[in-house]
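[SOLVED] Predicted holo structure with zinc ion

Edit: marking solved, answer below. Original request kept for reference. I posted the sequence and ligand SMILES and asked for the 3D complex as structure tokens.
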Amino acid sequence: MAERIWVDHRIRDDIRDELRRHRRWLETGGPLVGYIVDRDFVVVRAAGVENATRRRGSFQPDSAAVDRILVDEYRRSGGRLRYVGSWHSHPAGSAIPSSRDVRTAQGIAGEPDVGLPSPLQVIVATSVLPWTAQRRDLGCWQWDPRRHTLVSRPIKWTRTDLRETG
Ligand SMILES: [Zn+2]
């Protein structure tokens, strides 16, 4: 579990841009890219994934597409950026994990190749009505290996210097 969770405020722009690319009533999302220093998590970017299965009640990114994003970020940052978790939208829902989301987080936490026992899960509740489409509620959750569940975590907004330029 992280001591503190710092999030670059520009991930709101990442998420807004990704939401605009897809139908409002379908879930979308992608990996959270960042780094871990001491016991703090720092989220630098919320990436979108080109290849994914987007449904009304689920989002499943293509794992090869996610891997390509992570390799790019790793190279671009000189090996400083890595996978720290994932984000996805809940159209017309709440920013609370579903039972499927809990199982997903548990699966990631237990995946030896990922090497991340307490991944983050950001959920963005969105409105599907056109006149309220800007309304968003963001929740940050983290897998707690001791309690064996996702727990709600407060975010500290920040500005990192590891974002890509241009
Ligand atoms: Zn969900």
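OP edit: The chain has one domain: 5-158. Thanks to everyone who chimed in.
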